[in-house]
Specification:
- The relative contact order is 0.11.
- Helix content is 42%, strand content 13%.
- Strand 4, helix 4 and strand 5 form a beta-alpha-beta unit.
- It has 312 residues and is α/β, with parallel strands linked by helices.
- Strands 7-6-5-4-3-2-1-8 form an eight-stranded parallel beta sheet. A two-stranded antiparallel sheet has the order 9-10.
Length: 312
C-alpha cells in the first residue's frame, strides 16, 4: 500500500471502467481536480467482450504509473483501487502485473466463503482491501454477524480500509432499483444500512455509502448524504464527476460538532453543557475522536460554505 490510508481520505469514490483511455490523465495530471479516490473497474462496468481490451489498457496504465512513481509525491495522486472481476483475475493481476501505483483492491461479492481465497492472493503484497457487501447474504443479520466476527480476528483486519455497501447489487437481489425521488433509506436499504452499521461499526470497521444513481437530482443526493453521515458512513460511491464536490461538501463536519468534539476531548469535567446540549466525555469521546478525524480529511463546513455554489 503506497499510503497510510484513513477511511476518511476516500471522500467520493469515483468508479471508472478499465476501458477508459484517459485514466493516466485522471491519476497523474489532475484531469478531475476534485477526485480523492477512484476505482478502476474490471467487473460490472466492463462487458465480457471487453475484458482483453480492459486488461491491456490497465497494463499500459500500470507501466506509466510505475515510471512516474519516483517523480511524483504519492500524496498528490488520488487513492487508486482496482476492482477485479473475480478472485482468479485478482490472482493474475498480482502474479503478472506491476501494481506499484495501486493502493489496493475493491473485492466484489465479498462473503465468508471467498475470504480465504482473497487473503491467499493479497497476503504477500502490501495492497489494501475494500470488500464490497452486495450479495443476498447481506440481508441476513446472522450471516453478517458471523462475517464481522471472522474479519475482526482475521489477519486481513489491518488491510481493510472500509467495507463498501453495494447498493445497486443489493437492490437487484430483491428485484428493485434506487427510487427516483426517494433516498435509499426510505426503502429496504434503510434497514440494511442500519443493520450493517450495528454489526460492523462496534467492531471498529468503517463503511461507505452506496451510490446515488439519480445523476441530475441534486436535492435527492443532498438528502441522502445527510442520512449517510447520520449513520456514520465515511464516504460515498460516485458514478459521475459532477457529484464529487457535492459529496465532499456533505461529508464536511459541521462547525458546531467540531467545536463540541474539541471541548469533549479537552475537558476535565464529567458532564457539561455546550451549545444547548449535554456533553459527557465518558460516552461521547469516541464520537469526538471520529469527528476530529473526519474534519482532518473532509474539512469543516463553515470554512467551505461556497463549495456547493461553486460546483453548480
Amino acid at each position: 500500500m503506497s499510503k497510510n490510508i484513513s477511511p476518511f481520505m476516500l471522500g467520493a469514490t469515483l468508479y471508472m471502467p478499465a476501458t477508459r483511455t484517459d485514466l493516466a490523465e485522471v491519476i497523474l495530471h489532475g484531469k478531475i481536480p476534485e477526485l480523492r479516490s477512484m476505482v478502476i473497474c474490471l467487473e460490472d462496468a466492463v462487458s465480457e467482450e471487453q475484458i482483453d481490451i480492459a486488461l491491456y489498457n490497465l497494463s499500459e496504465l500500470l507501466d506509466e504509473l510505475k515510471h512516474t512513481a519516483s517523480q511524483d509525491s504519492p500524496d498528490s495522486r488520488p487513492l487508486v483501487f482496482i476492482r477485479p472481476r473475480h478472485d482468479q483475475m485478482a490472482r493474475e493481476l498480482v502474479e503478472n502485473y506491476d501494481l506499484v501505483g495501486i493502493d489496493g483492491f475493491v473485492v466484489p461479492k465479498f462473503t465468508k466463503s471467498n475470504l480465504p481465497s482473497w487473503w491467499e492472493i493479497i497476503s504477500a503484497t502490501t495492497l489494501a482491501l475494500m470488500p464490497t457487501l452486495e450479495t443476498r447474504e447481506v440481508y441476513d443479520v446472522q450471516e453478517m454477524t458471523e462475517l464481522a466476527v471472522l474479519l475482526e480476528n482475521h489477519a486481513c483486519r489491518d488491510r481493510i480500509v472500509a467495507l463498501r455497501i453495494g447498493g445497486n447489487d443489493l437492490m437487484s437481489v430483491i428485484s428493485m432499483r434506487h427510487p427516483k425521488n426517494l433516498t435509499l433509506y426510505d426503502g429496504p436499504m434503510g434497514y440494511v444500512v442500519k443493520m450493517l452499521v450495528s454489526v460492523f461499526a462496534p467492531r471498529g470497521f468503517s463503511l461507505t455509502a452506496p451510490v446515488c444513481e439519480q445523476i441530475d437530482n441534486i436535492e435527492l443526493l443532498q438528502r441522502e448524504l445527510t442520512q449517510d453521515v447520520a449513520h456514520g458512513l465515511v464516504g460515498k460511491t460516485a458514478i459521475h464527476p459532477s457529484h464529487l464536490n457535492l459529496i465532499h461538501q456533505g461529508l464536511m463536519v459541521e462547525k458546531d460538532d467540531y467545536e463540541d468534539a474539541l471541548r469533549i476531548i479537552n475537558s476535565s469535567q464529567a458532564v457539561f453543557k455546550s451549545q444547548g446540549a449535554m456533553c459527557e466525555p465518558a460516552t461521547h469521546r469516541n464520537w469526538a475522536v471520529s469527528v476530529l478525524e473526519r474534519s482532518k480529511y473532509c474539512g469543516i463546513a463553515k470554512q467551505f460554505e461556497n463549495v456547493l455554489l461553486a460546483s453548480r
